[in-house]
Amino acid sequence: MNSPRYQPFIPARLYIEEAVQNNPWTARILANLPGVERITIPDGKALPDPPALKSILLSRQRGPFLRYCPGTSRHICCLYQNLDIAAGCDLGCSYCILQGYLNVPMTTLYCNLDDMFAELEQVLDSHPDQFYRIGTGELSDSLTFDHFTAWSSDLVRFFRRRRNAIIELKSKNTHIAHFIRQPHDRRTVVSWSVNAAAMVASEEPHTPPLADRLDAAAEAQAAGFWVGFHFDPMIRHEGWEEGYREVVEQIFSRIKPCNIAWISLGALRYPPFLDEIIRENHPESRIYLGELLPGADHKFRYFKPQRIEMFTRMYRWIKAHGEETPVYLCMESDEVWRKAFGWSPHSSAGLKRILDQRVGG
Amino acid sequence: MKYTCLETALAEIDSEDRFFQLLPGRVDPLLMRSVARIGVVEPIHLQLRPAMRAGEEPLAPHYRPVTGFRRLQAAAAAGLSHIPAMILPGDWDDLQVYRWLVQLKAALRPFSPLEASHAIAVLSGAFSLGMEEILRAWFPLMGLAPNPKLFGLYAPLRLLEPELQAALAADELGIETAGTLAAAEPAERLAFWHLNKTLRLGKNRQREFWLLLSDIARMKATTLPGLLEEPACMSLFDEQALTPSQKADRFKSLLMQWRYPEYSATLARFEELLRAAKLPPELHLRPTPWFAGETYTIDLSFSTPAEYTARLETLQEMLARGLVDQLTELT
Question: Does the reported pTM lie above 0.90?
Answer without folding.
Answer: no
